[in-house]
Amino acid sequence: MRIVSLLPSATEIVYALGLDDHLVGVTFECDEPAQARSRHRVVVGGADVSGMTVGEIDAYVRAQVAAGRDLYTLDEGALGELDPDLILSQDLCRVCALPTGQVDAALQHLGCRAAVVTLDPHSLADVLASIGAVGAAAGADARAAELISSLEDRLAAVRAAVAGRPRPRVAVVEWVEPLFTGGHWIPDQVEAAGGLSVGGHVHRASGPTPWADLRAERPDVVLVAPCGFGLDGAAEQAELVLRELPDAEVWAIDGDAVVVRPGPRLVDGVEAMASVLHPGTVAPGPHVRQVSR
Question: Is the pTM of this model over 0.85?
Answer without folding.
Answer: yes
